[in-house]
From TrEMBL:
Keywords: Cell membrane, Membrane, Transmembrane, Transmembrane helix, Transport. It is a multi-pass membrane protein. It comes from Aurantimonas aggregata. It holds the Pfam family BPD_transp_1. This is ABC transporter permease subunit. It comes from the Bacteria. It is found in: Cell membrane. The lineage of its organism: Bacteria, Pseudomonadati, Pseudomonadota, Alphaproteobacteria, Hyphomicrobiales.
Amino acid sequence: MTTRRSRPRMATLVLVPVWGVVLAAYVGTMLWTAQISFTASRLLPVNEYVGFDQYRRLFASARWLVSIQNIAIFGFLFIVGCLVIGFVLAVALDQKIRFENTLRTVFLYPYAMSFIVTGLIWQWLMNPGLGIQKAVQDWGFESFRFDWEVDREMALYAVVLAGLWQASGLVMALMLAGLRGIDQELWKATRIDGIPAWRVYLSIVLPILRPIIITAVVLLAISVVKSYDLVVALTNGGPGIATEVPAKFIMDHLFTRQNIGLATAAATVMMITVAAVLAPWLYLEYFRRQRVGGAA
């Protein structure tokens, strides 16, 4: 018969194989990728070490620098846009409007699609020869333009628009669940005090929804890193390199250009960047909070 003290030990022993798989499959492959980035590997990995030559070539590449700029712009607009649109939709649906279930399904449905499907849909919609532009011009508005996917200045915003269409429904669902969990007595008290609704949402509701907002940001940030599918399906990185992103740069050099060394160098830079962003956030959200709670 097991005692209460032995239960945590048993649980730890059961998890040992899982941690072994995690260390081998994730940490091991990450270290192996970083190790290859210091070699002159081309088609196949080799042990000819060249120091930081691959990283110098990487940051001397205009294509890589453009991809970094694009992912920063896309990430900011995508995350902020999804949070704003999702919150506004959630507030609207929280007013007990008619056909709420139908509208909630309509708004959330795009998230059930993959980025590939989303990219293809918006590629057709923004195609000058058969999409929205042609339909509106056929109605007599010949000056109308909606050809963002072939416009170097607007192509990146076409990717942002497609991403917003897909992911805003997820944020709406998360926010709506949070709004429905707020005590109704809070709303009654604010009405009695005569506090404007917009101020209630900004000063009271948003702080209450902070854990949900953090969850939404994490999910959206993961989508930003995985934006390869959307870009390939919608613009394939074009026109030119106007919508190039780091993930596409890596995949092209890994499989098309047979330059494993440069591809792994780019992958290592992405890994370090993500870790540099996550580490302070994890510390502030979890470890620091646990220390404050323990001290209290």
